[in-house]
Amino acid sequence: MRICVAGAMGAFGLKHLDALSAIDGVEVTSVVGTKPDAIKAFAEERNIGHYTTDLAESLARDDVDAVILATPTQMHASQSIQCLEAGKHVMVEIPMADNIEDSIKLVETQKRTGLVAMSGQTRRFNPSHQWIHNKVQAGELKIQQMDVQTYFFRRSNKNALGLARSWTDHLLWHHACHTVDLFGYQTGEKIVKSQALQGPIHPELNIAMDMSIGMKSESGAICTLSLSFNNDGPFGTFFRYICDNGTYLARYDDLYDGNDNKIDLSGVAVSNNGIELQDREFIAAIREGREPNSSVAQVLPAMETLHALEQCLND
After folding, report:
1. Three-state SS for 35?
2. What is the pLDDT of residue 178?
3. What does the DSSP 8-state code read for residue 203?
């Protein structure tokens, strides 16, 4: 399987390159960046045969079977469609689009081409969340409430590496997207009610720095999500699953019960790295000619909920 990674030098591009190196039968044959000299040096350092600043150049190559997009959010939908139209399978980092219209267009393009198109909903693949999902599927747990905190300190426009960003991140269409999708995935139900509030708009970044979201599933399970770019403390997303048969705390790839006893996740998956597991699913779906977990079609309901939440914020 020959892969092109676009946005290879960004925080998540690097994570995907590391993950792909752990998967047998996979070769990164092309990388795409924004600065010619930088991407040339990067490709040479990693012994990658082709580099470019133009995605179309990579898509025209015979030694590229599939593309992983770790590019700025506003490019996700158009670049995903570009990949599919060029006959390449694609996995796009979260979110697959930053509006409902482009989300629908992407799903329609995937259906028309029949290629694999996957959204990078990493939380579906983290072993901590997989453990919960398996218990729910087996009928051993039923989720009553998910209480989620997504906290960062980003009062300037920087990425996860602390470097200046050329685009602006968004609490709703990026960070909330993880939890909105996960809530529907974990409960296995449609989100039937949602509401949102946001704090003041940052005068320079022009985005809300704080947000509160509430959701309800068909059976009555609820999700409470708090998000902030103003949090000067522990960073990341922390999940509390309140179930009919226990309470569980998920912190990235670790899981604890309600009494803070760590749960052994060693048998859940072949790796504890959610990005690697996500990439393994993408590769396996292409090889097996099937729809992947976290396909763009599966994630569309989450995008519909994000659209509804945006309407709440605009009212």
Report:
1. coil
2. 95
3. T
- Residue 47, judged by CB atoms within 10 A of its CB (0-12, 13-18, 19+), counts as exposed
Nearest to 292 by CA among 129, 118, 123, 121: 118
Give the chain's end-to-end CA distance (angstroms, integer). Answer: 47
* Statement: 2-120+275-291 belongs to CATH 3.40.50.720: yes
Domain(s) labelled CATH 3.30.360.10 in the chain stretch across 126-268
pLDDT digits (tens, 9 = 90+) for 206-260: 888 999 999 999 999 999 999 999 988 888 899 999 999 999 999 878 999 999 9
49 contacts 39 by C-beta, under 8 angstroms? no
Strands, sheet with 210-217, edge to edge from the N-terminal-most edge strand: 191-198, 210-217, 222-228, 143-151, 236-243, 246-251, 254-257
Q: Tell me how far apart the alpha carbons of residues 42 and 31 are, in angstroms, rounded to a whole number.
A: 9
So what's the pLDDT on residue 13?
96
What is the pLDDT, as a whole number, of residue 163? Answer: 55
Please list the ranges in the chain whose pLDDT falls under 70.
155-168
Q: pLDDT by residue (tens digit) across 95-113?
A: 999 999 999 999 999 999 9
- Contact at 8 Å (CB) between 168 and 229? no
- Ranges of CATH 3.40.50.720 domains, the chain: 2-120+275-291
Q: What is the third-level CATH fold of 126-268? A: Dihydrodipicolinate Reductase; domain 2 (3.30.360)
Sheet arrangement for strand 2-6: 50-52, 27-32, 2-6, 66-69, 89-93, 117-120
